[in-house]
């Protein structure tokens, strides 16, 4: 049975990310201290990876960024899956409509 690990507002933790977070007590404590929206941003960023290798790198970088004190993933435009707010104009154009800027 897994210890209850907090998830995001929209996204749920996949097993690989859950295992990586649970492997280090300090990382897990930092993860648990994030807001639900902060956790959601990291999960969305990892889930957005199209290749397994990229996903692995993003999980590793999540851990590094947590240890560096970051509360959101660096260089991430934000989750476009949230239903509590509309995507920004940039997110709509670039991430949803796939228009080049």
- Choose one word for the global shape: globular
Helix content: 40-55%
DSSP helix count? 5
Low-pLDDT runs of 5+ residues are none
How would you characterize the overall build of this protein?
The chain has 101 residues and is mainly alpha-helical. It has 5 helices and no strands. The chain has helices at 15-22, 25-33, 36-47, 52-67, 89-96. α3 (36-47) packs antiparallel against α4. The radius of gyration is 14 Å and the shape is globular. 21% of the residues are buried.
Characteristic key phrases:
101 residues, mainly alpha
Give the secondary structure arrangement, pairings included.
Blueprint: H1 15-22, H2 25-33, H3 36-47, H4 52-67, H5 89-96
Helix pairs in contact: 3-4
Question: What's the quick description here?
Answer:
The protein is mainly alpha-helical. It contains 5 helices and no strands.
